[in-house]
Design a protein that fits this description.
It is built from 10 helices and 15 strands. It is of the alpha+beta class. Strands 1, 4, 5, 6, 8, 11, 12 and 13 form an 8-stranded mixed sheet that branches. A 3-stranded antiparallel sheet has the order 3-9-10, with no helix packed on it. Strands 2-7 form a two-stranded antiparallel ribbon. The C terminus is likely disordered.
Length: 479
């Protein structure tokens, strides 16, 4: 039985066609509180701050959309860059990790070379090396390398190769036309041009189990960079040299092309293209050599057979607006869940106070002493038990009489709306556009508009024409 009563009481909550009732004269459909206003200001402040952060991220490209794919390198594709911006460093340490004293290259020498290779011909240009010194001073600071490495490392000697100002790495799938840049580490050997090498025993002792370190420039793709999507990087790698083994190190680059689209307002897009090199992988192979071979290490930088194609689209203001809208929805739901008990409590207090005011004005008898002091408020109901009990008692009355109270708030407006609707319907009743009325002395034909007006039209009519309708007498005698 209780289940049926509960179902009957809550049946109208399933009505999806209910009408909105304006509880305030200003036409507001909701009950507004100071708590809700404070929470709204807080949400608005959070949204403004979030919008500011999103705008900063949009300018920095942190939320840019990246579409990246790999493709095969086409013939004659390559990248040309300034040799002064390219740093190629090589050096040697002994087995204990201490620098090898190599005054006048008496233990070993480093030679750089650049080659154009094809199936039928190979042309290589060799360049001497020099102590790096200030060339890698900035590099040492960025990578945390001790400054002593500047004076034990060897770099490309640009002063002795002034004509060689650019470097072009070019690859080919068929290996018929490509370039490479490399370096050789050789033992010192006396010849007609050089006769100040150390003894063979000392050289073998120094280079046995020695550590070869090398560093080279490469570029890393960064979609969040403003001016250039490729960041200059520097690899620093090491490998151990063993007797009777020559190390062959192959460093592979990938050709990279990027298209950056700036389109802040969804129209007038601007696309900028960039190209660069990216580090792919390194391959180290030991090669068995004879005792007479003076070559210890050969390192080569190649352009691989694949390339990266990147499409970067920076977010627009519409994207920011969409994120703000989604964030606002989630934030509003969370705050609404937190504020719902307090908002409901305040709304019930508002209805109770309105009900008590109506009751107080329409009754000559005084209310309880509880309500003569002050209206119910949130703090009093929370801390005073007597008022809290009174609140629960009045709340039960409000739950039953809420619809009656709503109609009592707007009786005049409801009456006028009904009368205006009736008058509008009668205007289209053709059969009753003319009607005859009998009086005691004469017959008079009148228009329906003079007798079928609403209260509002009747006031207007009587103010313009001071006419009085004759009485209608009906004979109620029995037949």
């Amino acid at each position: 039985m209780y289940i049926f009563e509960f179902a009957a009481q809550n049946l109208r909550t399933l009505d999806i066609f209910g009408m909105d009732v304006h509880l305030l004269s200003q036409g507001s459909k909701t009950h507004k509180t100071y708590t809700g206003g404070t929470a709204s200001i807080l949400i608005l402040s959070v949204l403004i701050y979030s919008f500011y952060l999103f705008i900063l991220q949009m300018n920095e490209g942190k939320n840019a959309i990246l579409n990246r794919q790999e493709a095969l390198l086409q013939n004659n594709e390559g990248y040309t860059f300034d040799s002064k911006d390219f740093i190629f460093v090589a050096g040697l340490l002994d087995g204990g990790g201490q620098p090898i004293i190599n005054k006048n290259n008496s233990i070993y020498s480093v030679t750089f070379y650049f080659c154009n290779k094809s199936i039928s011909d190979t042309q290589c240009t060799y360049f001497p090396s020099t102590i790096c010194g200030d060339i890698i001073s900035e590099l040492s600071k960025n990578m945390g390398i001790p400054e002593d490495y500047q004076y034990i490392s060897y770099c490309f000697d640009h002063q002795k190769a002034e004509d060689f100002k650019t470097i072009r790495l070019q690859g080919s799938l068929r290996m018929d036309n490509f370039t490479l840049f490399g370096a050789l580490l050789n033992k010192c050997v006396n010849s007609t041009e050089k006769n100040d090498c150390a003894s063979q025993e000392l050289i073998d002792q120094q280079v046995t189990n020695s550590v070869f370190y090398y560093s080279y420039t490469h570029y890393q793709f960064r979609k969040d960079l403003n001016n250039q999507p490729y960041q200059t990087m520097q690899n620093f790698d090491v490998t151990t040299l063993y007797p009777k083994l020559k190390k062959y190190i192959k460093v592979l680059y990938s050709y990279s092309v990027s298209y950056l689209e700036y389109n802040p307002f969804y129209f007038f897009p601007q696309t900028t293209g960039y190209q660069s090199l990216e580090y792919d992988q390194s391959i180290i192979d030991p090669i068995i050599s004879s005792d007479k071979d003076t070559q210890l290490v050969q390192i080569e930088l190649h352009l691989g057979v694949k390339k990266y194609i990147s499409q970067v689209t920076y977010q627009t203001l519409m994207d920011v607006a969409a994120k703000i809208g989604g964030f606002f929805t989630i934030l509003k739901i969370c705050v609404s869940i937190i504020l719902y008990p307090l908002q409901l409590w305040q709304y019930k207090l508002y209805l109770i106070n309105c009900y008590l005011n109506i009751k107080k004005g329409g009754s000559t008898q005084s209310l309880t002493n509880l309500m003569e002091d002050d209206k119910l408020n949130l703090l009093s109901v929370f801390f005073i038990k007597k008022k809290r009990d009174f609140y629960y008692e009045q709340n039960r009355i409000i739950d039953k009489l809420l619809d009656v109270v709503e109609i009592a708030f707007n009786p005049l407006r409801l009456t006028r709306q009904v009368e205006d609707l009736q008058y509008f319907v009668k205007q289209f009743d053709v059969s009753k556009t003319k009607r005859y009325r009998l009086d005691e002395n004469d017959h008079e034909q009148i228009d329906i508009k003079s007798i079928s007006r609403s209260i509002n039209q009747e006031f207007e009519y009587q103010s313009g024409q001071q006419k009085i309708l004759p009485r209608i007498r009906v004979n109620m005698g029995s037949h």
